Amino acid sequence: MSFIILIIAGLIVPLLYKKHITIAKIVTAVAFGLSALMIMTGNDLSQFFNYFHSDGSVRLVEYAILATLVAVSVSLTGFERPMLAQMLFVGALSLAILETTNMFVFIVLFEAIAIVSYVLAANIRNYYNAEGAIKTFIAGAVAGGIILLGFAIFSVITPSFDYASMEVNSKYALVAAAIMLAGIFYKLTIVPMHGWASDAYAQINHAVAAILSGLIKSVILVAVFKAFYPFFKSFPSVSVVIFSFFAIVTMTLANFMALWQKRVSKVLAYSSIAHSGYALVPFAAVASEYAYSGIVYYAIAYTFMQTSVFMVLNGLRKDLGIKYVEDLKGLGKRSPIYAFFLTAQLFSLAGIPLLAGFLSKAVAFYAGVDAGLWPLVLVALLNSALAVAYYAWLIKQIYFDAPENETTSDIPTGALIGQGLLLAGTIYFGIVAGQIFSVTMG
Amino acid sequence: MMVSSALFILLVLPFVGAVLAYASGKKDSKYPFWVAEIIGGLFFLASLILYFSYDGKPYDYAYTWIAYGDLQLPFGIYIDHLSITMLLIATGLGWVDIHFAHDYMADEPDQGRYYSKVLFFIGGMILLVTTKDLVGAFVGWEFMGLASYALISFWYYKPAAASAGMQAFLYTRFGDIFILAAIALLMYYTGTLNLVELNEIANSGQIDKTAGFVIALFIFMGAIGKSGQFPLYPWLMNAMEGPTTVSALIHGATMVNSGIYIVARLFDFFEYTGALIVVANVAALSAFIGASSALVQKEIKKILAYSTMSHLSIAFVGLGVGSLAAGMLHLVNHAIFKALLFLSAGAVIYIAHHVKDAWKLGGLIKTAPFVALFMAVGSLSLAGVPPFSGFFSKEMVVVSAIAHGEPFVKVFATMAALLSIAYITRLWLLIFVGETRNQELEGHMHAPSNFWMRAPLGVLAFITLVISIWQTDIVHYILDGKEEVEPHIAGLTAMMLAGMAVIFSIVVATYVKGLGLLEKMSQHPFMKIVHQVLFNGYYVERMITWISKNIVVESVAKSARWVDTHVIDWLVNATVPASKGVHKSFKLGHTGQIGSYMGQYVIGVAIMVVMILVMTKGL
Amino acid sequence: MAFLMIFLPIFLSVVLYVVTRKDESITKYIAMGWFGLQLVYALILLSQLPSSGMLDLGTYLKVSEFNFDLKLQVDALSVVMLILTAGLLLLVSLASWEEKNQGAYFSLLVLFSGPIFGVFMTTNVMWFFMFWELTLLPMLFLVGVWGGERRIYAAVKFFLYTHVASMFMLVGFFMLYKQTGVWDITMIKEAAIATPALVWWMMFIGFAAKLPSFPFHTWLPDAHVEAPSAISVLLAGVLLKMGAYGLIRFTVELMPQTTKEFSMYMLAFGLATTLFAGMLAIYERHIKKMVAYSSISHMGLVVVAISTMTYDGLSAALFEMVGHALVISPLFLIAGWFHHKTHTWYLDEMGGIMKKAPYISAIFILAGMAGLGLPGTMGFVGELTIIVSAVKSFGWWIALIAVSGLITAGYIIWAVRRSIHGEISPVVEKATFDMSMPERVGLSIFAFLIIFFGIYPQPIFDLANSAFRFLGGM
């Protein structure tokens, strides 16, 4: 139900852009609010369609998603207003894919999300954006083909598409699932399916990058875990090897690539790719009962922090024209509030405690140790420490260096509210771990 | 009541007094002296009280200083005859020294700093001789070391003084480390640090001989440092950079005796473990080095410093050959006549406007007859001429050495004993006799005042003569019931006196009449070499400096630094270029061409599928 | 209350920074007020301590599925650390009286005071780790913004190095939880486990980098040289103690059997640290670097004491931890002050400072004497108790550690000879050696404490004894 409200709102809002932008905003707000209400009251369409089912953990993730979307919408200004409708659609599809329990629906929704991604990426203002949009599209197209190939094979083998009653024990099912996963990995920017993202995330509009690299990735993480969990369960040793391999490759490559980048957006792009690598650790750790908690925690934390950093970068680019790392020099003095938000979320990405980034990694990596994979966890943690180097480098520019030009900027109210909301989420989940555990393991 | 007041005065007042002296110096530069004079007098009074109130049993108070874990480190008080003897010497000479300093240090602006450090020093000495345990002894030992450092480098803005202070501290610290190790070893092997108990343990054979030997040697190492024995003696000579009153008190009469005291205190322990032999041999060597080097020195105080070294060695020899009586008696006598000699030298320096080189003086007997007289008394005592006190104790040591000692000890100790008369006569003659070599001083000399300078000298001279009467009583007092074997060698005294007379005549002849002959002799190349060796203290100082500079600093420390910078830290810093290299190689795969990206993609898919097929063993 | 002590300063610091933008000078008073409050709180805890066991301060943020509650409990060891921390924060504030950008500076200090209390107050392993890591953050800024020329290099090196080491520690912690199912130290203790060697070494690496032990020590000299003197005090006085505290809590108290197996390794690390760092100090001309090496050398002694795994050894270790903080702080402060006034770091370029600044020079000499173990100072008590314990546990050969007293004497006395004694050098001639009253007061307090506890050390030992009584009879 909740996502239907959002779809309807998404269809209405574009009509109001030209003349009644305020009404458009109100409609958006109401839509988000209503859908949150729907989630809270447990109205999840399970009586109509057997394909959607939500439980406590799903609800919590949905709240986080909605909060993030609200935060982003509130921060949109000027030429970005058309994105309001796109936010609504993203929200709708995210909620749906989180709640689904059917592989066919999952694939459809996945493709839908991919299309929405192309639309988002198509917010083009300059040549750079255009290049990013094309890369997104082409990668998505290729991936789409591969996913459908896998799905085709799978549909031959399995009697039913429901998660609970899929065919998971045969080898062919595994191969099919692997091909599907390979396709899905493009969205999750796992190496070597990440090439497009390393350029595109940096090239497209930063607010779009925020959604793509932050929110959508989190959503897909949880949805994929839920969808493919039965496969991992029946072939534990294979999944351990595959995911360990891809996890290590992804995080290592991304972290080293991030180290000497000149553009801030590129650093953040590779950081996002590295985080996908870390996210694969709970995938490898399916033997542990903490794996699901790890993924959920990771997704919630990640959506807050990654969305936030790109939104800040968006604001900085609009107001101060910041593109390169050197442009950040002295930001602490030039735009203290923006700098504060950026620093806080960078710390969260780096894994500083009391912020969600740390606890999410802790739980996710603990699942790894619990499954007996401590070498993998050690590599992941060392990578995480390596990442601190480039985050610290950014922070050094912001606070330790003198500004090169004296332009200052104040944060607009919308962005302030949005960032505040995101930071609140980061801090809350950094301190209160009980919330997540009670819904995933209670 | 009297006793507890006396104890309070002795143990607490030094430190309180030091603070008072320093503080009062800020108000008016006259006050510190009086603070010190009064307190110094109180010390001596307290020692006398203890002496007279002694009723057969030692004053014995136990106290646990640190209780940690299941261990307890004690810090008690134990005062017996040996302690009281040392107390009387320390406080008595300390008071005399303070008194003398009134005039000697009158020109010094920093009076507060001086007197407070002197009082602190006396406190340290008192602590050393009154404690029950090795920990307390070590604390007193180190306090004295600190005071010595502070007083040698009293004129810290003079590079020579500052360096001398540093040298003194480091040389003695080298020895002190061994005592610290000995404390730990004693706790391990015997579980006790009580000095009296240690002797009893030794007597009853309850300690492993080898362990005990090592421990005794370690303690003796500390004694070597503090008492200026071979090879840790060079600091003593350079310590003469400090004020002469400091040299008199610390480096002539009290601190340097600590080494002898600690060996005497642990005498049974040393005897049982067989460490006394080492003591005797080291001491004999040091005695000879000291005496022979003193023969050729130019500076008054350096001659006295080498002489101190030599005589301390003689006392050690006494102990080393098994005669506690001989060693301690010589300590007592030496303290008195050495203080007298140093203070006389101070008077001379004061008179001659701080000229320290004996060759630049001469003929002072006309200007300062009393000083000359008192210094002569001191010299005779040092030389071992009866009826002065020095004769008795030196004879006792030589007799014991010849009776009980090994050949090496016998020969070198006797030679050192005989040489004393040579160098001290030379010194006296150079200062007082003949023509005034320094023309500028003629007519400009300072006359020393009666009360402040001449009186102390006179008192000390008197004592060094009169104390000869009570030599056996002193021995009995110190030994306090322990048995003593007094060897007797027929005709030894006569032989020694004859030898001394011969040497005396040679020296007098050379220095009064035959300076020209001396000149000619010293031109001979062999004599030149001998002279150089003796003048530079057998080059021990050079060797130690060379080792510390080139081996410790330039080799060991430098290579540690090299390893640290070029290996350990290099590894840390190398992570930066290494990661840049990795980055560059990864970058090759990111061309920005979507086509190549997709190619990588497909390869990735293929890898995944292949891996799965391999792992599930084919289709 | 305990919860507030930890979390309030974290949020208070941001508020403080914002509120004092207009008038920065009141920040230090507010900060000192807060630290004073913390000190009072720590002293109250001291008075409430039971004679053995821990004092329970409450459980917060319960997470039953993951056993992740923030459990706060203290014993004598924690309370000593808390008092030391709060006291040093106050003294650091005094020493930073003239620092620039006071608003940000003191806010960061307040931010630091929260997690450091957390480290010492919690018995939950995971929260311990979180607070441990969080303390790095304000230090990064304090060194990186207020430091010397190479401050960025030093700050990043310090942050990354200890962070990487902590990652090993985290894996060790994870494995510990997996094995025991509990995150709380007191409960794990009761399980009396024999842990696999791997876990022990993982944790040891984390603590070794913090202590710092050879060969993980190279971050410290750079960090100290570039940090402002007051921050050096905080680094050396508090952060290094975190490493020792962790070592005691986790290896000795938690895994005694495994630690006993590896005690010789720990001893080797400790000895190597003491002697190697001492040698490095001898060769050093840079005054602050020399003091940094001295600091490392003394922490080596602490490791030696801990490795004895005995009641007396650990009591001696705790005393030396406190002693080291009190002794090394004035050395850092004065070394930095010398540089500030003469504009040179090198000992051979200075000379004769005593003539122009007698009181401060005297305190430097006093602290130096304490460092080399002169009786009458805390340094002697520490060295004496450690060497006696070490010989008692390991045998006669360890008495060689007495040589560290000689090595320290070597570089301290030489440093005094070069910079304080001797003729006045040109740079000293030009300089004016004035020091503000608060800074003077701070130094005097250090000097007083060094002598007071050097003469009457038993109060600290009583506390130490009650913390380690359970080891009695081992």
What does this protein structure show overall?
The complex is a heterotrimer of chains A (442), B (619) and C (474). Chain A is built from 18 helices and no strands. Chain A has 442 residues and is an all-alpha fold. The longest helix of chain A has 31 residues, at 127-157. In chain A, 66% of the residues are buried. Chain B starts with a helix and ends with a helix. The longest helix of chain B has 48 residues, at 540-587. Chain B contains 26 helices and 4 strands. By secondary structure, chain B is an all-alpha fold. Chain B is 75% helix and 2% strand. Chain B has helices at residues 2-11, 13-27, 31-53, 81-104, 111-130, 134-152, 159-189, 195-203, 209-227, 234-238, 244-253, 258-265, 267-273, 276-294, 300-320, 324-351, 369-383, 389-404, 407-432, 450-466, 471-479, 492-513, 515-523, 525-535, 540-587, 594-615; strands at 59-61, 64-68, 71-74, 77-79. Chain C is globular. Chains in contact: A-B, A-C, B-C. Chains B and C meet through strand 2, helix 6, helix 7 and helix 25 of B and helix 12, helix 14, helix 17, helix 18 and helix 21 of C.
Order of helices and strands of chain C: HHEEHHHHHHHHHHHHHHHHHHH
Helix content of chain C: over 70%
Separation of the first and last Cα atoms of chain B: 106 Å
Global mean pLDDT of chain B: 86
Q: What structural category characterises the helix and strand content of chain B?
A: mainly alpha
User: On the 0-100 scale, what is the average pLDDT of chain C?
Assistant: 89
Strand residue content of chain C: under 5%
Number of strands of chain B: 4
Poorly predicted ranges of chain B (pLDDT <50, ≥5 residues)? none
How would you describe the oligomerization state of the chains in this entry? heterotrimer
Q: Main sheet of chain B: which strands, in order across?
A: 1-4
Largest sheet of chain C: 2 strands, antiparallel
Distance between the termini of chain C: 37 Å
Order of strands across the widest beta sheet of chain C? 1-2
Largest interface, Cβ cutoff 8 Å = B-C, 52 and 68 residues
Rg of chain B, nearest Å = 31 Å
Task: Bin the helical content of chain B.
Answer: over 70%
Rg of chain C, Å, rounded: 21 Å
Number of strands of chain C: 2
Q: In a few lines, what is going on in this structure?
A:
With 619 residues, chain B is mainly alpha-helical.
